[in-house]
Amino acid sequence: MATWNPWKGCHRKSEGCKNCYIFRANERKNIDTNVVYKTDEFYKPIVKDSKGNYKMKSGQLVYLCFNADFLVEDADKWRNEIWKIIRTRKDLTFLFLTKRIEGFRIGLPNDFKENFDNVVVCCTIENQQRADERLPIFKALPIKHKQIVIQPMLEKMDISNYLDDTIECVIVGGESGKDTRPLDYNWVLDIRRQCIAANVSFQFRQVATHFIKDDKPYLIQRQYLCAQARKAQIDFTRE
């Protein structure tokens, strides 16, 4: 596993961004997250060592732009160059999340459908409104590997109309932090039911700091959020 942040900085897009961990971390460092800028690792996947070998080893999963949104509008002018780098490193798998799936075609190479099987795109949603806005766009795009990320999940949702064999996995999680919004376990189980009915893989990534189960509220410490989700043992792998 590797990370690649060719740019940093973002803007809050919708309800799910209210308590964004990137904004919170940057505020502690007095960094203005709304300033989007290229980083010194812009060309990281194609940097070579003294022997002419790529420093980023072959076969890795690369988490792309996890300190920003890959499709943030400020980076439109840089994205085509990033696609060229991704095309060059077909031996790596690149994964990114976005709340801006409507901007996916900006700077997109004409040969994307044929030459970018090494890209996993995760469309993030947080409530029914954003699901109904983003998922029809997402389904129509020529992306081979598609995942839906519902994190933070803010309400009960019905995404059954968007689940078919083009969606490889649905990932669900709650919010972390002192004043964050709750996650009800019943919402999670309902999404799981929809995934099983459509034969789409499901993953419960993390509970929330404020977690509700059987109508009882729980306060979960940050270090246990993912472990508690795993403990539930409700992940589902498509047949």
**The level-1 CATH class:** Alpha Beta
Helix content: 25-40%
Written as H for each helix and E for each strand, in order along the chain, the element string is EEHEEHEHEHEEEHEEEH
Instruction: Supply the CATH architecture.
Output: Alpha-Beta Barrel
Radius of gyration: 18 Å
How can the largest sheet be summarized?
7 strands, parallel
CATH topology: TIM Barrel
Report mean pLDDT, rounded to a whole number. Answer: 97
Total helix count?
6
**Backbone structural class:** alpha/beta
Strand content: 15-25%
Q: Kindly give the count of domains.
A: 1
> What spatial order of strands do you see in the largest sheet?
1-4-5-6-7-8-10
Cα distance spanning the termini = 26 Å
The unreliable regions are none
Strand element count? 12
Shape type: globular
Secondary structure elements and their pairing?
Blueprint: E1 2-4, E2 7-8, H1 21-28, E3 37-38, E4 61-64, H2 76-88, E5 93-98, H3 112-115, E6 119-125, H4 128-140, E7 145-150, E8 167-173, E9 183-184, H5 185-198, E10 201-206, E11 210-213, E12 216-219, H6 225-232
Parallel strand pairs: 1-4, 4-5, 5-6, 6-7, 7-8, 8-10, 9-11
Antiparallel strand pairs: 2-3, 11-12
Describe this structure in words.
The chain has a single domain (2-232), classed as TIM Barrel (Alpha-Beta Barrel), CATH 3.20.20. The chain has helices spanning 21-28, 76-88, 112-115, 128-140, 185-198, 225-232; strands at 2-4, 7-8, 37-38, 61-64, 93-98, 119-125, 145-150, 167-173, 183-184, 201-206, 210-213, 216-219. The strands form three sheets. The protein has a seven-stranded parallel beta sheet with strand order 1-4-5-6-7-8-10. Strands 9-11-12 form a three-stranded mixed beta sheet. Strands 2-3 form a two-stranded antiparallel sheet. A hairpin with a 2-residue loop joins strand 11 and strand 12. The longest helix has 14 residues, at 185-198. The relative contact order is 0.11. It has 239 residues and is an alpha/beta fold.
